[in-house]
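Minutes, structural biology subgroup

Action item carried over from last meeting: produce the structure token record for Phosphatidate phosphatase APP1 (Trametes pubescens). EB confirmed the sequence was re-checked against the source entry. Recorded below for completeness.
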Amino acid sequence: MANIAFISWSVRFYGLSYKLPNVSADNLVSIINDLDTSNLNATQTTLLQNRTQDLASIPIPSSNLTALVFANGSAVTNSSGIQLTTTDEVGEFDQFVTVPGLGSNSSSVRIIETGIANVTGPGNGTIILVPSTGISVVSDIDDVMRITKVYVPNEGLFNSFVQPYVNVPGIPELYAHWNETLPGAAFHYDTTTPVELTRTYVDYLFSNFPLGSLEMRPINISDPSQILEARQNSLLKLFQTFPQRKFVLVGDTSSSTLLSAYPQIAEQFPNQIACIFIRNTSATDSDDKIPFSTSEFKNINNNTWFFYRTADGTSSLTRGPRLSLRDTDARAATADLFNLNITGGQCRNDSVPQNVTFGEQGGILGNNGALGRVALGRVPYAASFVGTAVALVLSLL
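Output recorded by EB:
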């Protein structure tokens, strides 16, 4: 991610210095507690091994890294590259560096390649040159872009580590539509998944959605309560980096951190909010029996936020064979989000009931067809991993 600073670009270099563990394939399959691996096929076994290997990676603290930048196949940096700040005690680095030679500001996103010179293994990356004005889409990933079902613990683990990732119906088409129609469109993907799984998420995201920046959960978080702070920090960095851009924030009701972080950033930067879209997962999946709170939306302009059901006009998480273009157009006409005029300030589809109570909603006794009104305690969960120092909080966070 980069923003223009006078005639040079301020480029953010963000990542993790690590080495893969010397762990047998059998141990990689069994690294996640309470995950049933007895009946996996060959594809599922390979996916599980690849994902757990990344998760069990060993951070390298105090690493000295050198970055190289390339534009149109030619090096922008000289042969000595850019010396990055030494990685911290958990192997992470995160800094902005002014890089000349990347051209002037433009009205659309441009893609630049970068890499780390003095490493073995994958050290390449992508720089997204974001115009100073336009509309940025900030999107959560799990149960917004891909079907995870974090609200069903065992199924959430299985979908995260064993199954091929499956798109939430209509979201690839919606984001492609926004990418084509929103002025100066840019995409920023944000997740509480640990940074060790970056490679898995990058492979999935950029095969299905517009290129964009990716914010993962930092390693140095030991308490689930710190995840909200991480969400807020990533949003704050975006809003401060691009003060002239407006933002579309997309999340879901199964993420308690987003239901707090989005309203809070909207109160802090009201003039930079275009729309806030929250997917009501309980409206399309009867398995979602976890209550959620809408209390923090009480003080937000109600013309800017909208709780939607689906992006493609369907009412469930699954659908049949791939649709023809005519069928896709027909569904788009009934979709909750597709035809909204975001640039013109339209964030709401009046055909979709809201029933927001600004309190605890949903849950076992809630109304799956709209936003329920039951007040039950929140039930976060975490999955522990043998042989690593990380606890993956899929959760409701």
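Discussion: The chain has eight helices and 20 strands.
Next step: EB to file the record with the rest of the batch.
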